[in-house]
Design a protein that fits this description.
elongated, alpha+beta, 12 strands, 7-stranded mixed beta sheet, 18% strand
């Protein structure tokens, strides 16, 4: 499993208004230093600004790290020395007392800022380790080879510092073939993670016992509905969101050698790259997302079947990929990107796709991203019977 993260930026997790206020707070010490300089250079220089400048390093340490605090202290020191020289006040004992106080406060502020930064980084590292452990439990590593296919996965969390969210994926080998799922939970935060865990748990159990892929998805939907009906210890606002949760999901399985069966429940269609050309596998009979079957009319037909020949590449993804926008508000052109990608292994392709997303969005994803890449091995002769297998329909129930 390949898990990639956006660069850590302390302000990316807050809203635009809060970000502006935080930036403004960081500028306040420097603005006050400039104000002090203006007073000293104006006819109002009789107003003594020494005590005001002494407090600037301490004020800067509240919102900035050691370097920012040192910069504010340096600015205050420059203003004090410059104005003292300009007014020829070096003989005043008060000047030396203020300079000594400024040095002491600056040193204490830098050490305090460094200690706070170190403690905060330690807490973030601890949370990061906990999130990594939770991710390994929820989104387990996908085997590089499953029967006739080669598989690779990628997860990108939109929230800064996060490793898990509302997107899900899985790929397992069963007696019915290689079965995969990709899904996107409505909402964010812990309720979305809980819903993703419910769906993944049901999928991992049902794929080994249900012959019909539609029944597998029915198990996932039932698990989601049961989970949403259970009271939790979360806050009232989060608990209200759980009752409205639904999951867009897509399940696929490789059967009969070169036959791909797909059940699409309100999810973006998978893409198949065949001989340099992209084909989107749109469902013949769309189904509602998991959790919305009671309020939306859904299809009762079986899974859709497609040819999946040796050399083909299948891409299962969440809408965080195709809805990623650039500075001009243009969506990420996934089909064109897939056609333009160099010939490489699935892990290398995911690395290439990650870099393409970073360039397109400038590292500012607005939604989680989950991707599964599945390659059919070229040395499989069973592809000659693909069309006959599709015409014959799914295998009989056991």
């Amino acid at each position: 499993m390949r898990t990639l993260f956006r660069p850590r930026t302390p302000l990316s997790a807050v809203g635009g208004h809060s970000r502006f206020l935080f930036r403004l707070a960081q500028c306040v010490p420097f603005l006050i230093v400039l104000l002090g300089l203006g007073i000293e250079l104006s006819p109002a220089h009789v107003v003594y600004t020494g005590p005001l400048l002494i407090a600037m390093p301490a004020l800067a340490s509240l919102t900035m790290g050691p370097k920012g605090t040192l910069a504010a202290a340096g600015g205050a020191l420059i203003v004090s020395v410059t104005t003292t020289t300009l007014h020829q006040a070096w003989g005043d004992q008060q000047i030396y007392s203020n300079l000594l106080a400024l040095v002491v406060v600056s040193a204490a502020s830098v050490m305090t800022s460094n200690a706070v930064r170190t403690r905060r980084q330690s807490e973030l590292d601890r949370i990061h380790r906990i999130a990594a452990a939770a991710q390994r439990a929820l989104l387990r590593p996908v085997s590089a080879r499953l029967d006739q296919v080669q598989v690779a996965s990628m997860y990108l969390a939109a929230e800064a510092g996060a490793q898990i969210g509302g997107d899900l994926y899985e790929a397992v080998s069963t007696r019915y073939g290689v079965r995969m799922i990709v899904g996107d939970v409505r909402g964010k935060g812990l309720p979305a993670v809980r819903s993703a865990a419910a769906v993944l748990g049901a999928f991992r159990e049902a794929v080994h016992y249900e012959n019909d892929l539609v029944e597998v998805m029915n198990h996932c939907s039932a698990a989601l509905n049961r989970d949403c009906a259970v009271p939790t210890a979360l806050g009232q606002e989060e608990e209200a969101d759980i009752g409205e949760d639904f999951v867009t999901a897509l399940a696929a399985q490789v059967v009969h050698g070169s036959v791909l069966q797909v059940v699409n429940c309100g999810h973006p269609p998978p893409l198949v790259l065949r001989q340099g050309k992209i084909e989107a596998l749109h469902p013949a009979s769309p189904r509602p997302p998991l959790g919305l079957e009671d309020i939306m009319n859904g299809s009762t037909a079986g899974p859709d079947s497609y040819v999946f020949a040796p050399g083909d590449r299948l891409l299962l993804y969440t809408d965080g990929v195709v809805e990623a926008r650039n500075i001009d508000n243009d969506f990420f052109p996934l089909p064109e990107a897939l056609e333009a990608a160099p010939a490489c292994t699935p892990p290398d392709f995911l690395e290439w796709l990650h870099q393409a997303l970073v360039r397109h969005t400038r590292g500012q994803l607005t939604d989680d991203v989950a991707v599964l890449v599945i390659d059919r091995f070229r040395d499989d002769a069973e592809s000659e019977a693909a069309e006959d297998a599709i015409a014959a329909g799914p295998p009989p129930s056991r």
